[in-house]
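I hope you will forgive my troubling you with a question about protein structure. I set the record out below, with my sincere thanks for your time.
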Amino acid sequence: MGATAITFIALFAAIFGVLYVYYTTRHKERLALIEKGADASLFNTGKEASRWSFNWGKFTLKIGMLFMGVALGIIVGAIMSNAGILDEDANYPAAIFFFGGLSLVLFYVIDRKNK
């Protein structure tokens, strides 16, 4: 129990350290550019709708559909387990991967229709 707690603390400390260094370095670089008289429009990279911009709406829809597919896979795996359709060890992983993948394919179809 103690080793897992230390592992999680080390993991979160490492994540915090990387994020801290990233944001403080970015802040220092921006201040240096402003002091040199650089145009402030350099910092508006997230504002324009470029091809590579991150869209939280699509991300949450994708993750939500994936979790719903995994949940449906667990339910179908339990039903197949009780019905004795497949081997007991293969029911849950097969159903989870199938419905998780199906939900991602469905997201792709929905995303392509909206474009």
Observations:
- The chain has two domains: 1-44, 53-115.
